Amino acid sequence: MDVPPRKRLSAQDWVDAAYAALGDGGVAAVAVEPLAVRLGTTKGSFYWHFAGRDALLAAALAHWERVETEAVIALGDTQPDRLARMRALLVLALEPPGASVELALQPTADHPLVAPVLRRVTRRRLEYLGTTFRDLGFSPEESERRSLLAYTAYLGHTQLMHATPDLLPDLSGYVDTVVAALTRGGCPTCG
């Protein structure tokens, strides 16, 4: 009986699987044997690309940072209209899988590999939001407050999406309401 040849997996295949596992079950779900089964391969394939589980976890966290922070910010930067940028950022941030990874990482925020990435991602996002609010004409102090409010709205929505998705409103209308609330009062360029 002929056995079909196994697909050769790349390191990125393993990272993608680990990233999906992070969103499904957090740090504990990034385990070599279950990922090998999911990918239809052996643990030997894993060790061809990674020295150990921590190296894979670090790569998955770096992937999350790139895809769900830097790429989202880059897409936001393509919006010349500042309010459209704010809206686009919220829509992109609230879409899975990035929001599910964010939520799954929260219980392990003190993990030695997770903590620095989560801190860096949070700081980067808050700084970018602050810049967006300053671009709208808010003072630096008010921009900082509003960026924190925007980020907590994102985290709260993410939690609700996980715990009670049936209670969430239409995303489009919700995002419009959040943007209006965040830019109301004191915004010289918001019209």
From TrEMBL:
DNA-binding region: 31-50
Entry keyword DNA-binding: yes
Keyword entries, A-Z: DNA-binding
Occurrences of domain HTH tetR-type (ranges): 8-68
InterPro entries the UniProt entry points to: HTH-type_TetR-like_transc_reg, HTH_TetR
Top-level division of the source organism's lineage: Bacteria
PANTHER family cross-referenced by the UniProt entry: HTH-TYPE TRANSCRIPTIONAL REGULATOR RUTR, TRANSCRIPTIONAL REGULATORY PROTEIN
Name recorded for this polypeptide: TetR/AcrR family transcriptional regulator
Upper classification of the organism: Bacteria, Bacillati, Actinomycetota, Actinomycetes, Pseudonocardiales
